[in-house]
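Figure 6 in text form: structure in, sequence out.
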């Protein structure tokens, strides 16, 4: 069994963060592990508070995994402060894992900030160059690339700009775009477009976490980046189509719908 590590925040309501990552790993038939960098008191409607884990404890959690278990892929989610980013980057440089997927989480689905605004420069300088695949949504790509995005051409321009910051591939997610949901992948040479119909639902809590974890799972299982993104797009679309009306705000996606219907794929 392939083994995938999530380094991210904890969502006590279960729809995003570490909880969504572990559900996604399980749905893909890989063994999930976690390093918690922040404890987030949140639900489908709001973020109440955030308590960051100390950089020293973040490093020790990473050491605990890597000294004992082979890691086939790493997914990195919420990194709220420069200190947290530097601790994670230090350990990635030390252990040099393959297949690092980074979701530069800046906001919760309800709009509440999850990254200190002063941390964006550290993200660009320290974290982005470590990504084999970076997965910003449009608001995050706008912040990182320092430009407005309103068309698919803008998404491509932002992808080029962010790719130049050192990541090996970038997917600009188009779920915030009006019309069909178009994701744009750029690997430094070619653009790939992945398009699905827009799904009319408010229950999209944790979709970014789920998408990036699905990519990491597929890379761990040996797929190329374009095929991993294509499979992850299909998975998260399915999870949104069968999303759950849980809570008073943006409900979670259904990570296990296919599993409940058909059993675990041997893919």
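Output sequence:
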């Amino acid at each position: 069994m392939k083994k995938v590590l999530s380094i991210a925040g904890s969502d006590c309501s279960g729809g995003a963060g570490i909880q969504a990552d572990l559900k996604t790993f399980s749905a893909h038939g890989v063994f999930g592990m976690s390093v918690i960098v922040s404890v987030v008191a949140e639900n489908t409607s709001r973020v109440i508070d955030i308590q960051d884990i100390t950089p020293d404890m973040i490093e020790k959690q990473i050491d605990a995994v890597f000294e004992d278990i082979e890691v086939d892929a790493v997914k990195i989610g919420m990194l709220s402060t420069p200190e947290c980013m530097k601790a994670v980057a230090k350990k990635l440089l030390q252990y040099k894992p393959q297949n690092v997927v980074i979701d530069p989480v800046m906001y919760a689905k309800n709009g509440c900030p999850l990254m200190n605004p002063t941390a964006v420069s550290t993200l660009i300088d320290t974290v982005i160059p470590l990504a084999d695949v970076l997965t910003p949504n449009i608001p995050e790509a706008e912040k990182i690339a320092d430009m407005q995005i309103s068309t698919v051409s803008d998404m491509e321009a932002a992808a080029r700009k962010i790719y130049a910051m050192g990541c090996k591939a970038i997917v600009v997610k188009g779920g915030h775009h009006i019309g069909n949901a178009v994701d744009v992948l750029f690997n430094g040479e070619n653009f790939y477009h992945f398009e699905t119909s827009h799904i009319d639902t408010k229950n999209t809590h944790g979709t970014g976490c789920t998408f990036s974890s699905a990519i990491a799972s597929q890379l761990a299982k040996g797929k190329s980046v374009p095929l991993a993104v294509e499979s992850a797009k299909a998975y998260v679309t399915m999870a949104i189509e069968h999303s759950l009306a849980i809570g008073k705000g943006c409900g979670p996606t259904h990570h296990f719908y296919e599993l409940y219907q058909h059993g675990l794929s041997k893919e």
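Caption detail: The radius of gyration is 17 Å.
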